[in-house]
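User: two proteins, same treatment. go.

Assistant:
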Amino acid sequence: MEDISPWLFALMGLAALTAGWIDAVVGGGGLIQLPALLIGFPGSSPVQILATNKLASIFGTTTSSITYFRRVKPDLKTALPMAGWAFVGSLGGALIGSVIPKSAFNPIILVVLIGVGAYTLAKPNMGKVSGLRFTGRKHHVVAAIIGFVMGVYDGALGPGTGSLLVFALVGLLGYGFLQASAKAKITNLATNLAALMIFIPQGAVMWKIGLVMGLCNILGGYIGARTAVSKGDGFIRVVFIVLVSAFVLKIGYDTFVQFA
């Protein structure tokens, strides 16, 4: 890879810092980080962009996972098995993603996100407090299914994985937004790790810029997790709605361009 200017390092670092904050609060930092890498490194291959994004992201998800664990005390009996199934799903998803064109998923993602946003707006009390819908084995089975499905999605495609995880944990299992964000971070850490296990042996990671962005992602993830914990469920709900709206606009535009 050619020499990187200090200005490009600075811009990529700022993008990673912002992405880390967003990702820690409600997920979806890739909305910032992936476009930044595409713009900053137009000559790089898609797999290099994806791999470098995953390297940067795993620093932030590790930091925010630790912060959430210390301050929120998520139920690890739910979070760890869900993360394990997400890890397996992400490995399979990465293999699927190598043969299926990602452009085919845009219309599906758009419909899902519109539904997620509309449902969240229609249920103003959703996620304000935890009110679990299932208990015992059924609860853990549903959590495992969520983890596996979202792992496959993250490995194969990726945009908005953290936000969709939060929505699934809130909408399907009944967690409050804060508890859902904590579990989503642990699960997202597993999917990032699984993807890197596929990408690193391929030599796809741009290590120099990836490590710099990773350090900035750590700071963003730490600040974001502390912000979410201090502000609570209501704040996370607002950020969630804003981010989903941004995803709808971004992917809606991409879909329009794709079929125009």
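Protein 2:
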Amino acid sequence: MNKFFQFVKNHALPIAIITGSIFYDFFQQFAFILPVSMFVMLTLSFSKVSLKEIKFKKVHFMLLAVIIFGALGAYLAISPFNKILAESVMVIIMCPTAVSAVVVTAKLGGNAPNLVSFTILANIAAAIIIPSVFPLIEAKGMTFLEGFAAIIQKVFPLLVFPMILAEFLKKFVPKAHEFLKNYSGISFYIWAASILILMGRTVKSIVEKPENYHIDILMGIAALIICIVLFTVGKIIGTKFDERISCGQSIGQKNTIFSIWVAGTYLDPLSALCSGFYIIFQNLFNSWQLDKKRHADEKIKSEK
């Protein structure tokens, strides 16, 4: 029995991906609890991060330039051939960092405050650029201020409130803060449970949409290429600043729920499909990274 639980602990993420994909119809119905699970997960994670550690650095602006110019450049390059595919690629690259990326970064031994700093910056940039540029591509009748307010309302409460709560507990209820800090590792398993639901929603959207296998294949390939490129570029840039892990997660792990909303709000709704495929690939990549880290840690222990 102990071996079974150890196996589940070591492979929580791939188990969640496979289970959520197979039993998608069951797990997708629990999507309403995702905001709550994310809030709890981030509160636990932020209990180990101080607001004093949140600083914008040169590397953050380099990463921001990659996603802004990368998104616009990809759209201009692909749109003459396939406009929907171009919109799909653009929205994924421009999409800000997933708030849950802090959990993976901490688990991989990366610099969580560095990632949180970029996440804030990326979300601010998205709130300005998306309502400024995207309506020029697909006119949906939303003004800049309406779009800006909608994005701020959609993203920032989930990102900022857990940070404020963790800091409040640290100053005024230190025992509660210490409790959260001691059990912050639970956030990884909350995230794994959330993956069950996300995979359920993703697979359902792919399986039950109108048949169009040509665009399915194109978007699946595009999502895989983008995932590989973003994680690789992030790690290359991060290596120069001794922030390889946090920088890779910063531009590689995307808030795909947000990108699906953006696609449906500003662009052709079909462009959201690519974000669905990206959910699968980024979580497979994270699973591989975590497994590699676990094997490396076990090797170090065995050599001592």
